[in-house]
């Protein structure tokens, strides 16, 4: 039975601009063929078993030829696969989607087109340039600056376009700009017509260069402004001064490394990206179940003998409750036991299971818990601390000093992650502004991954920590910590980062 091909517009680069239907197919696909300009983060939505084929192309460098891409589409569909052909922008706007669809028709392969938000519309919008405006123009044209090399002559009539439309949007035209500009001027376009080039539009690394037809070629050469970029010619470019919203975001242009475990980093990454940052995920730790459940199981079977259970993280809640369920129990096993939670997120996780928290310390550190219990008589009171395998001993020791009986058990493991390779490369190239740490484990594992040359690699890079304990661990490695959250949460860390860069 033949499969089916979906030719999907991935949008202009910001992964949030994928259509709902396109994202649905990405999640269902057996095979994905993706372009250079399709945001690779979209591939995180694919099934684990999905086959991924990179078929990107750029000027002078084709990883696969168009003929090879067409053949691969046919082969995979003939094997009965659901194939997602992920193309930057919109497949039918200078995306060669029509050629691929024609090939599929000729091979008898069923297909669908899922349109995408095209870059000539989205990129100017992210640069604060409306393509039409009643005070400036009422027409717009999209033109390619890079036509098929097999053509005998250009099909773009620059002499008519020069004065025939209000706004002119040129794709793939950076290298041809020295030839295009004179044709527009010779055909009657005013030399003082504003021009903008927007590189990597809609992404955190977006760059915009503004000039006029008279000087834009020299400005591009001086700035060494490289493709991929969209070129906008027209009076509407003047509106950028007022409407430039994206590049004014608090963290725009900042490259920030997130070392948190990938499954738990989504909210943090999203909040940084929403503020304009380029987020680099480099998980320094992974969260895994304990090597042996026997000790945890024994304590969970004795839950009613405890006066307090202290949860120091969302992970502790997750692994304890899930293990209870695996043992045939449910949250009723905690009836009569008081619960303490470090942090609002941990408390919220308990609440999601229908459990009420009796005590949340004012500060989200072990020392604050001890301060809250210090005025109570804890003699013979039993405490259960389900925590990570490498948790600090301060909480257990402090409770023992107050007279309590304490069982500290491993509910989950933190093990070293594998996210350092891409970071080392970018550190060497000076592409990273900030590294964030959300626990002492992320500090230790990240630094171990950098190796003995870490001081040189981190020269000029800012460090942000979720709280004083994590910051203390960072300082033991000789790091200067510029940012410490006032509230020891992801939201607090995000706000502290924004506040720090507002001073620039």
UniProtKB/TrEMBL annotation:
Keyword Ribonucleoprotein listed: no
Residue span(s) of domain Tetrapyrrole biosynthesis uroporphyrinogen III synthase: 270-494
GO MF annotation terms: uroporphyrin-III C-methyltransferase activity; uroporphyrinogen-III synthase activity
InterPro entries to which the protein is assigned, alphabetical: 4pyrrol_Mease, 4pyrrol_Methylase_sf, 4pyrrol_syn_uPrphyn_synt_sf, 4pyrrol_synth_uPrphyn_synth, 4pyrrole_Mease_sub1, 4pyrrole_Mease_sub2, CobA/CysG_C, Siro_Cobalamin_biosynth
Domain of life: Bacteria
Residue ranges of domain Tetrapyrrole methylase in the record: 4-216
Matching Pfam families: HEM4, TP_methylase
Protein name (record): uroporphyrinogen-III C-methyltransferase
Protein species of origin: Halobacteroides halobius (strain ATCC 35273 / DSM 5150 / MD-1)
Lineage: Bacteria, Bacillati, Bacillota, Clostridia, Halanaerobiales
